[in-house]
Amino acid sequence: MTDPDRPLAHAPDDIDVVSLARTMIRYDTSHNGEGADTLPLARTLDRVWRHAGVATEIIPTPKPGNVHFLARIKGTGNRAPLLVLSHSDVVSVQPKDWRHPPFAAEVSDGFLWGRGSLDMKGAGAAFMNALLRHVREGALFDRDIIFLSDCDEEGGWYGTRWLTEHHWDRVTAGAVLTEGGWMLAQSDGSTPMLASLSCVDRAFGAVRLTASGTATHSSRPLPDSALARLAAAVHAVSRARTPVVLTPLNRDYFAALARGTHDPELAAAVRRLLDAEDAADEAEVDAAAEEVLSRSPYPGLHNAILRATIAFVAQDGGLRANVIPRRATALLQLRFTPGGQSPQELLDHIRKVVAEYPGIRMDLVGPPGEHPADTLARWNRDWSARPSPVDSDVFTAWRGAVALTHPGVPAVPAMFEAGTSGKPWQDRGIPVYGTYPYLVDNATLTAMHGDDERVSVAALRQGAELLYRMFGAFVVHR
Q: Quick one: which of 224, 315, 333, 443 could link to 213 by a disulfide (CB 3.0–4.6 Å)?
């Protein structure tokens, strides 16, 4: 076993999951909107897989250094390939706000710290560790298993959409396993409460609010200040709750939460929510939902499962301290629950709130050159996605592995509150499932895309074990 306190400098026969994750984190693959330099990381992954005797390929994109990495474990071919999908890029950081340097991959206080430790180099390392362990043992799978570490998952133009359009023959599969569902801890932060495998992602879009006013000297503020009216409108939008809508998938999730939690008051609150939703009493549903959120150890996550959400993510306006600007803009990201409140309904909700603030325009945000009607049509297509089936061998293998690794913990299908790069396969009718296989508490979950991102070392090892057992369901016994 390699030493987890030392980076991976070569390709030993036994790849420790923590050492591998630390090596991956140490590559700064920050995505700043124009793609990340993923080639050095891809070359290291290439050495590891080739040392294990697995065929590999590095696929360049039109942006130099921004590459996809593939490894293919040959199986019997009795079933269509399983694509195990991770991403190599990470969101950018403000290092001064971190307790530990974001690319040092330090192990401290039982955690592995660093950008990507949770999302998703830790998960990628767990995927690799589990698969390489089977390869080292001489296992033969009943299908090819393709490991893909893609680029541009965090934005950009050359992610899996580009990859599937240009290299479909390399990544065609019968199912995809990627990031998604969570292994949630009880309120003590260490005892498993609920395991979920995501079967559908929330759809997303964005709108830009633009306020216009009089440009003048800052010594003479006027009532039509663009910045002030925009701030008031954004504040109002953030306070106006969208309606609670429980789809069948999310009802099952909350029912499992009531079974899994050790908090009887949370369980009772969830049951009241489900009963109120059955009675279609909107006021009672909203009150019950607020009670669930007040008692949940994961209020942000569970709010995202209960309703469509609106996030204020960027603003632009003002250049100098002595100038009141003519215009100010705010970017809002929207997340739609498939089967819940529709994109049009959410847009109408925002327009109704913003109408109280004259002089503010709302525009849909899409790729350059896309007509707003086409943007909305695309959002509607994404919102109409159906969950991947729970009677598949992939879901069954995951549920069996959870039963072995975390006996007695409910293992349920779920909606992922964010999005993944599995969508191009889903659009082709191919089942896509998601897991972060390690136990998390709310502080760990909140640090995703934030400061001090980290993952528990013990949970990372246990997650790799869970995946090893899951992949073991596809081994041909000979």
A: 224
